[in-house]
Amino acid sequence: MSSSDAAKNRFARRIVTSMRHSTSEDLVYDSDDFSITVGINKRVFLDNIYRRWLKKSWLRRQFSIGQMAAMALEATRLNHLDFAEAAPLLLPVIRSRWLLTYSLETDEPTAPCMPFRNDLKVCLAIDGNGFIQIVSNSSTLEKWGVTFEEALETAMANLRAISPPEFTFKAGRIAIPCELDDFTSSWLLIPEVFDSIPGNGSLIIVPVSRSMVVAARPATDVESAELVRISLELYATENHLLSRLPLIWSGNGWDVADTTRPGLKPLNELIVLERIEQHELQKRALEAIRDAEGSDVFVANLFVFRSKKDDSYTTFTTWTCGVNAYIPKSDAVIFVREDAIVLQAYWDDVVRLVGELVQVPRTDPPYYKLDGNYDDLIETLRSEGKDAHFVQA
Q1: Distance separating the N- and C-terminal Cα atoms of the chain
Q2: Average pLDDT rounded to a whole number, residues 203-228
Q3: What does DSSP say about strands 214-216 and 247-249: parallel, antiparallel, or unpaired?
Q4: Is 124 exposed, middle or buried (0-12, 13-18, 19+ CB in 10 A)?
Q5: Are 200 and 212 in contact (CB under 8 A)?
Q6: What's the pLDDT tens digit per position in 327-366?
Q7: Which residues lie below 8 Å from residue 95, measured CB to CB, with a gap of 6+?
Q8: CA–CA separation, 196 vs 187, rounded Å?
Q9: CB–CB of 25/38 below 8 Å?
Q10: Which residues make Cβ contacts (< 8 Å) with residue 100, sequence separation at least 6?
Q11: How far apart are alpha carbons 36 and 52 in whole angstroms?
C-alpha cells in the first residue's frame, strides 16, 4: 500500500468514527473506491471532501474532522433526493473541465453539463446545508425523470430568484464582488447583472474562481493593464480557481477578448498565461498515462517568450534529437541536441515540411507524436533560410 493510500484510509477511519456520533445507521468503508456506504445503499465518495481537508493547515485539520464528517452525511442525503426535493436546491455552476470525471469509453464528462467557454463547463449543483453537491452522473437525471435542459431551466430560475451580487471597486472602475460565495461565477449566465459596471469600453470579465470574478469596461491600455494586474493578484490567492481568460460579452454570448482591438492589448498576458496552464494540465495527464503504460516517451513543455521590443508573446516547445516525444502545438519549435539549440523555426514551416502530424488521441490542447530523427528537416529549414532567432542561446 502506498503512503498516499494509507493516509486516505486513516482519514476515512476518522470520518467513520465521527459519523457514528451523528447516525445510528450502519457505516461501511470501501478502500477500493474510497467511499462510505451509509445504511443499505446510500454511498458517499470521499475524494472531494478529502481534497478540501488537505487544503487546510495541519492544525486546522485536527479540529475539522467533525466538519468533514458532517459534509459526508450531507452528501449522502443530497445524493438520494428525488427531483421534487432537489428542484428548490438546484443552481447552475461553472467548473473547469479538468475538475470533472471523464468516461474512459466516451471521453465525455460523466457529469451532465454543457460548454460555456473554452475549458469551462456549465454543470448542475445541489445547494445543501453548507455543502455543494455537483450532479455528477447522468443516472441522477434519469432517476429524476428530467433532461439536463429541464433541470438547468429550474436551476436558472432559482439563481434569478437570488439577490445578485453587489460590487466594490478597485483602482477606480474595476469591480469585484463585495461578498464571496460558491455561486458568484454563476452570474456570468445572467450577464445583465453586470450592466451597472461603469466604463467606456465593452464589458470584460475574468472568472478567476468559483467565488471571484473581476469585471471592467476598459477603453485604454492603461485600464486593461490594471484589470490584468488585479486579476493576477486575485488568481494567486483564491481557492477553487477557474480561469484567467478575459471574456467579453458580444451580445450573444461570452467570447475570449480580441486583444487586437484598441485598448485591449495588455489582456493578451492573461490569455497566454491561461494557455500555458491548460497545456501544463494536459502534460500532467499525458505523463500519468505514460507512466501507467511504462512508456519512455518524453512529454514536452510549452514555453513563452515575451519580446521587449513590442511586448508580443511567442509560444514555443522543444524537439530533442533522438528522443520520441509528444509536443504541443505552439508558435515555434526549438530543435535541441545535447542541451544545445540547433535551430529555431516557426511551427507552420516545420509542419509544412514534416507533413500531416499524428495527434495524440484525446488531447486538448493538442499534442503530437514525433520521433527524434530530424537531421534532414534541419538541413531543409536552413537551406530555406527559416532559422528564426527569437530566443538567444
Answers
A1: 46
A2: 95
A3: unpaired
A4: buried
A5: no
A6: 999 999 998 888 788 889 999 999 998 888 899 988 889 9
A7: 113, 120, 121, 123, 134, 210, 242
A8: 14
A9: yes
A10: 109, 110, 111, 113, 121, 123
A11: 17
Residue 329: what pLDDT? 93
Question: Each residue of 56-67: pLDDT tens digit?
Answer: 888 888 888 988
pTM of the shown model = 0.81
Residue 203 grid cell = 464589458
Distances (CA, A) of 301 to 23, 317, 339: 50, 6, 15
Supply 146's cell numbers.
428530467
Q: Say how far apart CA 152 and CA 154 lie, in whole Å.
A: 5
**Residue ranges per structural domain of the chain:** 1-80, 81-162, 167-273, 296-383
Tell me the per-residue pLDDT of 292-327, one tens digit each, with 9 for 90 and over.
Answer: 888 889 999 999 988 888 778 889 999 888 888 999
Question: How far apart, in whole angstroms, are the C-alpha atoms of residue 287 and residue 266?
Answer: 33
